[in-house]
Amino acid sequence: MSAASLHVVTLTLNPALDLTVHADGWRQGEVNSGQGFQLDAGGKGVNVAAFLADWGLSVTATGLLGDENPEAFEGLFRAKSVHDAFVRVPGSTRVGIKLVDGAAQETTDINLPGLAAIPQALAELDTRLSALTADHTVFVLAGSLPPGVDAGFYARLTAKLRGAGCFVALDTSGPALTAALAADVLPDLVKPNIHELEAALGRSLHGEAEVLAAARELLRRGASLVAVSQGEQGALLVSSHEAVRARPPHVNVKSTVGAGDAMVAGLISAHADRLGLTDAARRATAFSVGAITRLGAHLPPHAELEKFVTQVAVEAVEGVETA
Question: Which keywords appear in this protein's UniProt record, sorted alphabetically (predicted)?
């Protein structure tokens, strides 16, 4: 497999129009002045698709999209040459509000509920996903589930896709992640943050050793890579034979929106290029760093990304048992 021959599908069941409002020093409960705003097509899988397209991979984006306000999504897909395989559903795609305090380098998210998924739309989506397995080898299942979709959806889809010989990456949270990690068939790649992993496993993880033990548990049950993101502290990446800790360089942060999605995209691109764990950690972290230096789901040019790659600190985690 080479990057040129890899065809990726990203699935976003609950996309959002991200309204990013810049308001330095804003205070809750008071009248605040903003410096500007930006409206972007978003949702975790949509962001992953955009980042992968920027890197140069062939990407198909699918999921459920409101038919009353698809223009921002359609414009993004055209601009980045992403194939649009979304199922249109009646209504408007939800809006997600991001309040960015540039002075404090903090982002506050307000996520509104999505459109309810109707059975006809889910049936059409299932048909499209089945057809895509014929010529797509990697599937990224990302984001929350909308009303009308039960918590076991990703678990069932993972089993179906892996049964078809596809590589499956999962980035979700809450009951959907809990169900997916409790299933008989796990995704190949799981990328929770530490809080999502604790919630899914139903226990606190105190210290690195317990995080590693939890990751090894998932590897023994069928995952091939577990990446636990920890914000500014970087990420722990664990495979069956090794574990590494990756720490990002300090950069000027414009928005943290999409940082985790960029890490997923970096890991998929590393999978395409068959990179070892250390190099995969560097690239995925560089993708995440590059994303936070820009607004919207856009990677910097390759030369700038490669510079970030050299600045990522990666060290082996000692005393790791094999899965």
Answer: ATP-binding, Kinase, Nucleotide-binding, Transferase
d(CA 166, CA 200): 24
- Note the CATH architecture for domain 3-14+43-86+118-316: 3-Layer(aba) Sandwich (3.40)
SS3 string of 5-18?
HCEEEEEECCCEEE
Token pair for 184: 């008989």
User: CB burial class (10 A; 0-12, 13-18, 19+) of residue 118?
Assistant: middle
Model-level pTM? 0.91
pLDDT tens digits, one per residue of 7-41: 999 999 999 998 889 899 999 999 999 999 988 99
> Running DSSP on this structure, what letter comes out for residue 221?
T
**Res. 322 pLDDT band, cuts 50 70 90:** very low
Handedness of CA 156, 157, 158, 162 (dihedral sign): positive
Beta strand ranges found along 143-249 (DSSP E): 167-171, 189-190, 225-229, 235-238, 243-247
In angstroms, rounded to a whole number, what is the distance separating the alpha carbons of residues 82 and 228? 28
Mean per-residue pLDDT over the chain, rounded:
92
309 DSSP assignment = H
Confidence of residue 319 (pLDDT cuts 50, 70, 90): low
Annotate 57-68 with DSSP letters as a single string. -EEEEEEEEETT
pLDDT band for 132, please (50, 70, 90 cuts): very high
Residues 6+ apart with CB under 8 A from 69: 17, 92, 93
Catalytic residues: 261
* Pair 216, 321: CB distance under 8 Å: yes
Extract the runs of DSSP E, i.e. beta strands, from the chain. 7-12, 16-22, 36-42, 58-66, 83-84, 87-89, 95-101, 106-111, 138-142, 167-171, 189-190, 225-229, 235-238, 243-247, 313-316
